[in-house]
C-alpha cells in the first residue's frame, strides 16, 4: 500500500479553512498540521495547529499549502524551498514582481514542484469554455470582457483589488484564449478609505489583437463573476459563480422586421446552455497538485505562469498611476 503524502497548511483564515476542509478528505493525502500564529480559536481545525513554520516543518511534510496573507508569500515560500518542501501557493504568487521572481528561482533551483492557486482554471464553466474555444466553436476571438465585483472582504488588508481579484481575470483570460497580454490601460479608484485601490477598470490587448476589458471592484452589494468571449460565430458567457456556460450563436435566419434588424446589428441565433459536470474547483485544484507531487502530468498552474499574472497586474497599477498605456511585452 502506497504511503500517503504528508501535507501541511499555512494560514487558517477564510481561504485556509477551505483548504483544510479539502485536504482533510483528499485521497492519498494526510493533513498532518496547520500553522497559524492566531491558533484555532473556534477549535474546528481538522489537524494539529502550531504557531510557527518551524513547528509545522518539524512534523515532517512532503508539501505545504500557503494560504497566509500575500505579503508573507515571499518569506514563507523561500523557507519552504530552502527546506526542500513542495508548495501550492495561493494566488497571487507574490505582492510584487521582484518577490515573485525570487520564488520562481528558489523552487526551480531545488527542483521542487510548486504551483499557484488560480482556482478559476478549475471552474467547470471555464474548463468547458476553453475546450470549446480550442475546438474552434467560436471561430476567431474578437473580445473578452470580465466582470468581477462584490462587497469588500474584510479579510484582505495587505493588497488592493488588482492584486487580489484582478489576478483571477488576467490568468483566466490568458488561459482560455491561449494568448498573452501586450499592453494595458487601467484606471483605479479608492472609495472605502483604505490604503489600496478597491476598483479598477482596464482595457488590454492580447498578442493576437483580441481586445480585453476587466471590471473589478469591492464596492458592489452583489457578487458577479462573468466572463464573456465574443467571436465570429457568436458569444460564450461563463458564469463562474454558478458554473454555468451559455452560447449565443449568431443568427442564420434573416430578420424581416427592418426596424429590429437595424437596431440589433448581428442577428440573434440559437441560445444553448450547456449541461456540464460540476465538481468543486478547489477539490480539483488539490487533486491536480497532489498528482504533480506524485510525478504525474497534471497541468498545474506553474510559478512562472503565476509570475506573468503578477507582471500584468503590476503594469495595471503603473498604468493607473501614470494615466498611460503600459506595455506588458
Automatic annotation (TrEMBL):
Transmembrane segments: none annotated. Residues 6-118 form the Gfo/Idh/MocA-like oxidoreductase N-terminal domain. Residues 129-236 form the GFO/IDH/MocA-like oxidoreductase domain. This is Gfo/Idh/MocA family oxidoreductase. It comes from Pilimelia columellifera subsp. columellifera.
Amino acid at each position: 500500500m502506497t504511503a500517503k503524502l504528508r501535507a501541511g497548511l499555512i494560514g487558517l483564515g477564510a481561504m485556509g479553512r477551505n483548504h483544510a476542509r479539502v485536504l482533510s478528505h483528499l485521497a492519498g493525502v494526510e493533513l498532518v498540521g496547520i500553522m497559524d500564529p492566531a491558533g484555532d480559536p473556534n477549535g474546528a481545525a481538522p489537524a494539529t495547529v502550531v504557531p510557527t513554520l518551524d513547528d509545522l516543518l518539524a512534523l515532517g511534510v512532503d508539501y505545504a499549502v500557503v494560504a497566509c496573507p500575500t505579503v508573507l508569500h515571499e518569506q514563507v515560500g523561500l523557507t519552504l524551498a530552502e527546506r526542500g518542501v513542495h508548495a501550492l501557493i495561493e494566488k497571487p504568487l507574490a505582492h510584487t514582481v521582484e518577490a515573485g521572481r525570487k520564488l520562481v528561482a528558489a523552487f526551480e533551483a531545488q527542483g521542487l514542484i510548486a504551483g499557484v492557486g488560480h482556482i478559476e482554471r478549475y471552474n467547470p464553466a471555464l474548463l468547458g469554455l476553453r475546450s470549446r474555444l480550442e475546438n474552434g466553436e467560436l471561430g476567431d476571438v474578437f473580445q473578452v470582457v470580465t466582470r468581477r465585483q462584490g462587497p469588500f472582504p474584510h479579510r484582505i488588508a495587505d493588497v488592493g483589488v488588482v492584486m487580489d481579484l484582478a489576478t483571477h481575470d488576467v490568468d483566466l483570460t490568458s488561459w482560455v484564449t491561449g494568448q498573452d497580454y501586450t499592453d494595458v490601460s487601467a484606471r483605479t479608484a479608492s472609495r472605502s478609505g483604505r490604503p489600496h485601490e478597491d476598483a479598477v477598470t482596464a482595457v488590454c490587448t492580447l498578442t493576437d489583437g483580441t481586445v480585453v476589458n476587466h471590471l473589478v471592484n469591492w464596492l458592489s452589494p452583489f457578487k458577479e463573476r462573468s466572463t464573456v468571449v465574443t467571436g465570429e460565430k457568436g458569444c460564450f458567457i461563463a458564469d463562474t459563480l454558478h458554473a454555468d456556460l451559455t452560447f449565443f450563436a449568431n443568427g442564420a435566419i434573416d430578420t424581416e422586421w427592418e426596424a429590429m434588424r437595424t437596431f440589433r446589428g448581428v442577428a440573434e441565433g440559437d441560445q444553448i446552455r450547456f449541461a456540464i459536470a460540476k465538481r468543486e474547483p478547489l477539490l480539483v485544484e488539490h487533486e491536480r497538485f497532489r498528482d504533480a507531487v506524485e510525478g504525474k502530468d497534471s497541468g498545474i498552474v506553474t510559478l512562472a505562469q503565476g509570475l506573468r499574472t503578477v507582471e500584468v497586474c503590476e503594469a495595471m497599477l503603473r498604468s493607473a498611476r501614470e494615466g498611460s498605456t503600459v506595455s506588458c511585452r
